[in-house]
Amino acid sequence: MPATPSVPSTSSAPPAGSSADRRTALHWAERWDRQQEEFLPEREALFDVLIDVVRESAGRPDPLVVDLGCGPGSIGARLLRRLPDATVVSVDADPVLIALGRGAYGDLSGLRFVPADLRTPEWVDRLGLDRPADAVVSSTALHWLDPSVLTSVYTAAAGLLRPGGVLVNCDELERDQDAAPALARLDRALLTREKARRLGAGHGEGWYDWWERVLAEPAFAPAVAERKRMGFDGEHHSDLSAGLEVHRTALRDAGFAEIGTLWQRGEVHLLCAVTPSPEGPSVPPRPHTHNNAPAPCP
Question: Were both Cys, which of 111, 169, 250, 251 would link to 273 (CB 3.0–4.6 Å)?
């Protein structure tokens, strides 16, 4: 995929709320999506599955969804196109990403951005939810948390969810190499091959390239200044919790009743966890054969 050309910068940002503001934000949001595909080459398909999970599990046309580490709101924008009556509360600590999301998708009814740091307990109180959430979702965001903080975030998320609510996390999550070295190698190889098929010989704009360029965009100068004031230095782009078992353990410790992978290619997992429900799990009617056709009567 060829690199996305940079946008010529103007000497001053357009007036707040203008169509030029929105065009600039949409441009950078699109570039964000493309550089994210460098990590998740099947990102759009993953988001389709994530939204299917929310829709299937919510059981209502207007689910309340919390998006953790939302970036510029990629999940929220897509979810609201599919479920226009939903409410998505999108949370991120980075003022540049919040400003970008508000600029690009601020006209979407049902999408609200909340600036909050998941490493502090105050993030839950800042959401302003008026009922328990039906789903908590995330994509390529939680691996940067320390494992102990990850457990705290998952515990807080479980407290936000209604009984039987779901947490869905899309990310590159490594298998335990000591327990299954051959499978871990195949996981990495499958993801590498998929990236090669999708991206070809060339690569597009990468993570660090995107950040270098967006931080120089005059339209986001106030948010960039706030980012510097907050002392953001890249520490939140590490891989402290990149292991699959780290997440499974944290989800178990957080009290989720069921934990499993619903979609996987190599190291990329759509990991889902379900909160306990007094009614018990909803079991599909049986018997069915592997191709979903009714089994013959005995």
Answer: 251
